[in-house]
Give the backbone structure.
Amino acid sequence: MTTSAVVAIAAIIAFAAAVQSVTGFGFALIAVPALALLLGPKVAVVAMSSVGVPLVIWNAVRWRRDILWREAITTSLAALVGMPLGLLLLTHADDRALTAVIGVTILVLTAWLWKGLTLPSGRRTEVGAGFVSGTLATSVGTNGPPLVIAFQAVGLEPTRFRATLQACFVAQGSIALALFWSRGLVVHDVGVAFVVGVPAAVVGALLGDRIAPRVHAGPFRNAVLILLVLSGALALGDAVFG
């Protein structure tokens, strides 16, 4: 791996971690398509999980007083059912097809978030969101949006919303990593991304904590969504024309 690639990985992960600290989600949505262009889609998904798990554990510990455990446990148990399906896609799809799936998934989920579409609140929504989130966690790595949509339906206040998401990500990310390890997907480039990415994620998260009180939620959210559209389009374009 070249020095420029290592620097790019650190920059991508630091920025994604900063966004996650401000909004509570967005780490995978930003990191996966960008890393896929550098490392390939399968390595990108596994590398994102390897860096993301320590980050969300740290966030969950810091914000543990605001976690809503019933919602977190319900969605996490449902995610367990979907994870084997996602892993099947990850291990059997070729790189171009998987990159295309990543790009399309990013664009569809971003459009949903941008439009502010909602679902009815309740246990069924939480279970459905957990199942879809688990499937995405082990296939394309972008498991946050279904949970975001479900928790928006409940009407969680921002601090509880952000904290509860981290608890869900801890459970899903840890299980996903174990599944990736069992299938031999934790390769050398994943290790490099982990060594480079964890310190970068810490720096990004701390920076996010510093800027969060100064950021206006509306414009920042729109800027992030625009970036997600661009990253999804780049991944899709690379799959089609690369």
In short: The CA atoms of residues 71 and 114 lie 24 Å apart.
